């Protein structure tokens, strides 16, 4: 008897009839978490402590990297995948590409290689649960939680796609919700590059995804895009389709295309339209999911960055709630004026609808009871109790990715509702001009100018990118906000942005200082320089290294390793004073390795 590791279906087949995943022998899945590798030293560098899990690709172990004392997750792939040298070479190439990913929402790969014990990847050790486990436990997530997780996934994908890396096997089991100190969570996307290796291995060995001799993972049917099922070329938009499936599942508790067997699942993925999402989910989110699930790739959003921006807008406190709730809005407001949005991509048009016509300014009538919803100052709570809050000033708004049907009303609703409260006492309802004009009355603008120009301006609190300097923001008279200016090879700078009097304009100059440059050189040249605190390859000699902010801020110095095939590794250190002053090391002399049989070092990964 065999068991599907994804849905726990018991079957005699090597492929699960329900979701198309490779199955495992029941005896193997139910075995203790110890095996012959436990307690052994793997590849002369990793002490294997215990097995954490086993799947179709291989086994994952908790291990300690002996030379640095770091605990890692060591994934050892199934031995039958390493039968020929070509397969091993392809794996190393794919792993090397994936190891260049540095986004904080992508799992860190410390090391990889091919030993007598098999192909392996050493990754950061995470604690928490996968999105698959979360959904099995709670079934349905709140839409803002889905948006938060989805935005992190999309940002991770955006970096990968910019480097030509397509995941190919996105699913809840490949998204990890890692617990961090202080009780928060960090989303981590797993297994970049591995699915492509399996796909190429399957093709070269003449196997298909339904081959019964041995299971090959080239994707999970219920998350695969139509073009992937048809065996056509896949690109970034195929990953976005999988995102749409995952969002749908997290929002509703079920996947949009379910069936009793893999063939029926494929047919639905190719031909059927997903059922509509519930109406209590914001329209912009429903439109986004519908766009992601388009059968034709050219009808989906073109980049993961577009998806992330929409989702981030849904995460913000001022986004329209699907269930009315009492909302307390702070007194800060600053927006990017419409003139800076004229060139936004046409793909946004899919998510926007024309605003409603403005009310007649001259219209007056007896005031009805104030509506309990659709205004941020008189909303009922989740339990249904209506409350009235004092009228706040407008909320910070990025004006990106929000449903334009709701936006103008929300920007002006605070003043409209305040007037309505007065009108209720007088027996008159006041409609004062266009809601858009009401929202901008009394605001000032500030132009942020950086030296050098071209710095990215980021909201210091939300970490959203507002644009590139010079950048004009507008806000209410009491608004003060912190922004961070970032520019390559320069130190980041965070400043407060106090706004001028209503209707006034001002400029804010932000001067950025250059980051220290540390020269590295070796004899002979061509040595990789590894920053030991992160395992990151920062360059190949000779070169100059721009010291990152986090290294300078730590004021703990840095240790480096010089690595050149045929020569002994050499470690050097620089103190924080030397780093801050841009003082490098003299040209480092590397000593040849003695003897022809010295072991070669595996390729280190840039992080």
Question: What would you note in describing this structure?
Answer:
- This protein has 607 residues and is an alpha+beta fold.
- It is 24% helix and 23% strand.
- The protein has a six-stranded antiparallel β-sheet with strand order 4-5-6-7-9-8, covered by helices on one side. Strands 13-19-16-22 form a four-stranded mixed β-sheet, with no helix packed on it. The protein has a four-stranded antiparallel β-sheet with strand order 18-17-20-21, with no helix packed on it.
- A hairpin with a 5-residue loop joins strand 11 and strand 12.
- It is flat, with a radius of gyration of 28 Å.
Mean pLDDT equals 72
Please give the number of β-strands: 30
Largest sheet features: 6 strands, antiparallel
Low-pLDDT regions: 201-217, 320-441, 596-607
CA-CA gap between termini: 42 Å
Globally, the shape reads flat
Relative strand content: 15-25%
Main sheet strand line-up: 4-5-6-7-9-8
Helix content: 10-25%
Number of distinct helices: 14
